[in-house]
């Protein structure tokens, strides 16, 4: 079944603004969006979707622009690209419709899901366990039976969404060089420096700041450390027949505790910056869902740290139920929350690498109007 056409007014306005930027070219060195704009003269909706997912919403172009309101052109490129970016996540999400619902009502959905799942885990924990430590509250087999499908489902849903995105933007088969170029940009969060190495303007407006870049790195690497912690615990269990709980000097703890701390610090900082930034330069309709994702990710890291702190006490059962409720809710909501933006942004960077290498034409040719 073909995807629904994106809202015409959003794309018409984005096309108007991008064409003005292409004529001006003052911001050409700011980030990867502007060189991508200058490679073509006409923009299909697929091209605009690609530009929107390349944009990191650093807002430097807005504060440098001479054509923002009250000028008659009234440019707000970060805002209109943010709208298209959110639109693309909603259109490509599978099953269709859930992403838009979460973006509008994310806080209520996340809270209800965490509470419901925590109560479910609390009820399971009241039954006799099958081991020591956490497994005395929730058996290993039960945990695998619950979390394996919850882990595989978002991977499948995201794969479908990325495939839909790749088709619309005109992506081609990926080679190692494409991944290396995009991976370097992701690892350094290069585009959050405004492309000029002096930071971005997200929260300081006319002043540059690296705070958002550092906090994003804390979240990204914190999440990666937590994921590696889980992977190492899995290897210990199945490869070495070494069951949890693990001492502090083992990989699950050495990776997981710093990862949890980075997650909590990073999400708290990003939430604080979001309250200081001008919502009109993002997508105001999706502010609720974006903040809900930040809080859910931070709560997942925080409950994990608290769970480690209360190990061996009577509080383990209730904290474990809350932590597992957060983790499971995060997994299930990943394809529909802003967690998905990392996957789409990586795809956009890979597509941009293909264009820069000359292997792929700049224009997607999709849905030209």
Can you walk me through this structure?
The chain is mainly alpha-helical and about 375 residues long. It folds into 2 domains: about 10-90, no CATH class; about 95-350, Fumarate Reductase Cytochrome B subunit, CATH 1.20.950. The chain has 13 helices and no strands. The protein has helices at about 10-25, 35-40, 45-55, 60-65, 75-90, 100-125, 140-170, 175-190, 210-240, 250-275, 285-310, 315-335, 340-355. It starts with 7 loop residues before the first helix and ends in a 13-residue tail after the last helix. Keywords: Membrane, Transmembrane, Transmembrane helix.
Brief digest:
This protein is mostly helical.
Number of strands: 0
Order of SSEs, N→C? HHHHHHHHHHHHH
Count every helix, treating DSSP H or I runs of 4 or more residues as helices. 13
Kindly, what is the distance between the CA atoms of the first and last residues, rounded to a whole number of angstroms? 21 Å
CATH class of the largest domain: Mainly Alpha
Radius of gyration: 22 Å
Instruction: Choose one word for the global shape.
Output: elongated
User: Which fold name is given in CATH as the topology of the largest domain?
Assistant: Fumarate Reductase Cytochrome B subunit
Unreliable sequence segments: none
Number of domains: 2
Architecture (CATH level 2) name of the largest domain: Up-down Bundle
Which secondary-structure class do the elements indicate? mainly alpha
Largest sheet: none
